[in-house]
Amino acid sequence: MADAVFIADDVTKVYQTESVTVRALRGVDMTLYQGEMAVLLGPSGSGKSTLLNILGGLDTATSGSVLFRDLELTRCSERELTRYRRDHVGFVFQFYNLIPSLSAWENVALVTEIARHPMDPGEALEMVGLKDRQRHFPAELSGGEQQRVAIARAIAKRPEVLLCDEPTGALDSATGVKVLDALQRINGELGTTTAIITHNAAIQEMAHRVFTFHDGRIASQHVNERRLAASEVVW
Amino acid sequence: MSLAMLDRKVVRDLTRLWAQVLAIALVMACGVMTIVLAVGAYRSLDETRHTYYDRYRFGHVFATANRAPLSLGREISRIDGVASVGLRIVEPAVLDIPGMAVPASGIAISLPVTGEPPVNALYLRSGRLPRPDAPREIAVDERFAKAHGFHPGDSFAAVLGGHKLTLTITAIVLSPEYVYAIGPGDMVPDDRRFAVFWMPRKAMEGLFDMTGAFNDLSLILLRGASERRVVDAVDHLLEPYGGRGAYGRSEQISNAFLSSELTQLNAMARVIPPVFLFVSAFLVNMILSRLVALEREQIGLLKACGYSAAAIAWHYAKLVIAIALIGLAIGGSVGNWLGHGLTRLYADYFSFPFLIFRQSIDLYVMAAAVSVASAIAGAAKAIWTAVRLPPAVAMRPPAPARYRTVLGGRSGVPRLMSQLTTMALRQMVHRPLRTALTTLGVSFSVALLVTAMFSSDSIDVMIDTIFFRAERADARLTFGQEVAPEVIHDVARLPGVMRAETFRSVPVILRNAGTEKRVAITGIAPGTRLSQVLDLDGNPVAMPENGLLLTDRLARQLQARPGTLVSVELIAQGRRVVDVPVTAIVESYVGLSAHMDLAALDRLAGPGPRVSGAWIDVDASRLEALYDKVKALPALGAIALQNVSRDKFRQSIGENILTMMTVYIAIAVIVAFGVVYNSARIQLSERARELASLRVLGFTRAEVSHVLLTEMAIVALAAQPLGWLIGYAFSLSVIKGFASDLFRVPFVIYPSTYAIASLVVLAAAGVSALIVRRRVNRLDMIRVLKTRE
To answer: Secretion signal: which residues (chain A) (predicted)?
Structure first.
């Protein structure tokens, strides 16, 4: 069996406001392995985004432990988490979050400037099929293209993990397939451990493993015997 | 009664945006404050002056003569337009005050036999007026009495007409003629060294050999009378008696100083408030545009629910009006408070028996109207945008902003700047108007500081020029009347005198190109060192053998250039008129003056060599002995102590400047802070998503702040040279406003002034940067990324 990249052990997360206490995670155990593509399914509020944010160092667990290789994320300071995100994690979000004042190439270069072993921004854009659009600004790109720039930006630093929160949520199916194809190729070619959150059950066919969340817990998980190529996914 | 839902929203918006609201309100408050302060103080002073002049019968026309018979009074009163006539004896005096080594100067004015003067009445503060038959009783002006702690019953010694006497104070009074009382050679009032006092006519007649005669005249005119015609008639009547030319209130020293102060206040009220109102309008525009952008969907929803466009416009207008009202409340109350303070400060400077505060309601109505109007003007575009949005469009997100490359920056080409710097620069280019206005706003605060501080530089140069280069003598003695030049030997023998040089001063009226000016020509002998005439570059001028040297301002008023023949009327020499060529234009900061070679002046005025005073340099260790001697010197009319004048001037101006600087620095910091803080907050709001994305990508807080702070730093730095330039222009207009026939300030700004102004503003910008930096640190990455733009 491959090396474990993430080991989450009995992770809980409680959001406490003045009058409301929300238990977003109620004891989650999960291990993700090197090169694995995992899909996290579940209804809104089931805790999958919270877990992803904790894995990505955007948020911290209330209790339990999260290991990234030897690094105990739950014990990291704000500064260490920033370092961790910078060196190891690539993010893709539903709303792309590109910098509107930077061109596609520059959005990618934004990350390669601070990364330790980055690829060339052009190379990253080529991997997502946007080499010829690199001089365009976000406002001049379609939603699918913007999302692929976001993916290029996420992978250009050769991260060990790629965390995607509803990457196709704002896209139509034809465009979404292109984005999924980019993710799958990167997972295959670079061996980047990839976790994808989605509402779209069709996407699970692409994954090695599928986790289904319910009410802050992992309700079930299964391994796909046969993975579909992105182009075979339909919804 | 409960608030309508939209009004609740106004209240909550105000609470939520309190810091920005306060920043704008403070800038606006500065504008309101200057309106209330300057206009309020102007009105109070003007009203006080008007009432004082009116109630105490301040004269309209004034004249002096050598010695005219009292019987002339009847003819004078028959001049068309004359309401009442005051005939007096006015003579200089040297005073010897117990416990004060330095001699003081004074002016003695006769009180009519009837007691109360018909013109220039006295306000009796305490005691009783001197009895007509009591020769040693006097009434003294309040400021002098206060400076020495004198009360009715106290006495001091004085040399009057060559007699040393002990005078007893019976009354403390104020006169509309001496609201601003300035001693010989002084540039600001020195209450300890200058006294105006009134004594019975009988006593003065005896002391000055003026029985049945007068040498000073004041007239009150009927409403609508022609001052010009009365002046001509008086001149005609006084001519046989050595009349020195009548003049109106505008040339009366005390009134002229008061008027020039009022003019400055008026100028301040017109120039400064618009700056603040402009800046606050810009800030309102910035914050409201952002608010409308953020509330785009809410506006759509409100419209979809059936709210009219007008209701929505009114909703946002209310927010703006609320901000303006907060500014008005702060500015109005601070302005009112400072206005009282300023009026009182003026009352210290000028001598009024009472103060009338005019804080009429219309002033506040005007300030309110102006500030609300400027705020609404600033908000107009944002409100219009909100109103125009069709609901369906409003509920969709706005089209993404389009950016351009800066200076053709190409992808893939090796670059000099990091992507973070590129982001900052593109943002600036993307909103050029906002960047320009922000820069302008910050530069205004630099300009205000330069304007506040340059006067110290200018006055520094003025003191150096006047006291160290032009008037270099330690003291100036003025004799009671013109004497033969041999007096120099007596002067040189006075204790401690190391050098003595004489001069002659001849009162004249200069005429050219239809303008006439009443001045004195000072005759200076060649080789005079204690007083020098300086050319326009500040270098000493060698006195030409013939012709007149005119000061810059005088030459301009007379439209005279070197070579122009100016008509000179010799007032004290039988009003002879002679044409004299102008030979040079020279510099002078005090009064209007003309100079000539002493011998040439003697030839011009006759009857032979005469001097009217002397400049002396004194051994500082023997000052006391000199003072003692001078106080008992019969022939001495007045003594001007340049060293004491200089210190008094420095001290008095220094206090004023310190007060003014404190206020201006506070104001400039408010403007700088208001502009930088608000623009950074708006930036932060607009770019929260982008900045959070950077944090997610692994950029540190410092790196993320860098994006915002780079832009702020560029704006703040670019604002400096612009601020210096605007400050230069403001200062120049202030200098122009200052200039009067009495006083002119050189225009000098030291480099250090620019530097200090910049440092203060950059520090204020730095503090707001730190506050924004703290907000960047608290960015909620997850929430921002989960929401749609």
So the answer is: none
Q: Rounded to the nearest 5 degrees, what angle is found at the Cα of B282, between the Cα atoms of B277 and B287? A: 125
- Identify whether the C-beta of residue A38 lies closer than 8 Å to the C-beta of residue A210: yes
Shortest Cα–Cα distance, B689 to chain A (Å): 7
pLDDT over 70 at B333, yes or no: yes
Q: Kindly determine whether residue B697 and residue A153, on different chains, have CB atoms separated by under 8 Å.
A: yes
- ipTM, interface predicted TM-score of the complex: 0.78
* Mean pLDDT of the region B387-401: 69
Query: Cβ contact (<8 Å) for A102 and B423?
Result: yes
Q: Give the distance from residue B424's alpha carbon to the nearest chain A alpha carbon, in angstroms.
A: 9
User: Worst-scoring range by mean pLDDT, B445-459, B656-670, B722-736?
Assistant: B656-670
Residues from chain A contacting residue B413 (CB–CB below 8 Å): none
Look at residue A223 and give its three-state secondary structure. strand
Task: Find out whether B147 and B192 touch, Cβ atoms under 8 Å.
Answer: yes
Between residues 73 and 112 of chain A, which touch chain B (CB distance below 8 Å)? Answer: 79, 82-87, 89, 91, 93, 95, 97-107, 109-111
pLDDT band at B412 (very low <50, low <70, confident <90, very high): very low
CB-nearest to A138 from B400, B410, B430 is B400
Rounded CA-CA distance B457/B653 in Å is 12
C-alpha angle B448/B450/B456, rounded to 5°?
120
- A95, A96, A101, A166: which to substitute to probe chain B, counting the most B Cβ within 10 Å? A101
**Residue B426 above 70 pLDDT?**
yes
Give how far Cα B118 sits from Cα of B58, B75, B86, B219, B385, Å: 10, 16, 6, 9, 69
Of the candidates A154, A60, A110, A169, the residue with the CA atom closest to the CA atom of residue B691: A110
Q: Which residue of A has its CA nearest to B787?
A: A95
Answer yes or no: are the C-beta atoms of B533 and B543 closer than 8 Å.
yes
Q: How confident is the model at residue A2 (pLDDT cuts 50, 70, 90)?
A: low
Indicate the residue type of B85: V
Confidence of residue B772 (pLDDT cuts 50, 70, 90): confident
Q: Of A100, A114, A122, which is closest to B698 when you measure between CB atoms? A: A114
* A139–B426 C-beta distance less than 8 A: no
Q: How far is CA B384 from CA B112, B289, B381, B387, B432, in A?
A: 73, 10, 5, 5, 21
In this prediction, residue B171 carries a pLDDT of: 95
Residue B672: which of B715, B608, B640, B633 has the closest Cα? B715
Chain B residues with CB under 8 Å of a chain A CB are: 399-403, 405, 410-412, 418-420, 422-423, 426-427, 430, 689-690, 692-701, 703, 781-782, 785-789
Is the confidence at residue B176, as pLDDT, over 80?
yes
Is residue B79 pLDDT above 90, yes or no?
yes
| CB within 8 Å: B698 and A87 | yes
Q: Do A101 and B701 touch (CB under 8 A)?
A: no
Digit-coded pLDDT (tens) for B720-771? 999 999 999 988 887 877 677 767 778 889 999 999 999 999 998 888 888 8
pTM of structure: 0.74
Q: So what's the architecture of A4-232 in CATH?
A: 3-Layer(aba) Sandwich (3.40)
DSSP state letter for A74: G
The answer to whether the Cβ–Cβ distance between A82 and B690 falls below 8 Å is no
Q: What is the pLDDT of residues B261-281, one digit of tens each?
A: 788 777 777 767 777 778 888
Which letter does DSSP use for residue B609 in this model? Answer: S
Q: How confident is the model at residue B19 (pLDDT cuts 50, 70, 90)?
A: confident
What is the DSSP code (8-state) at residue B315? Answer: H
Q: Which residues in chain B touch residue A104, judged by CB atoms under 8 angstroms apart?
A: 411
The answer to whether the Cβ–Cβ distance between A106 and B411 falls below 8 Å is yes
Give residue limits of the domains in chain B.
90-209, 417-471+643-789, 497-618
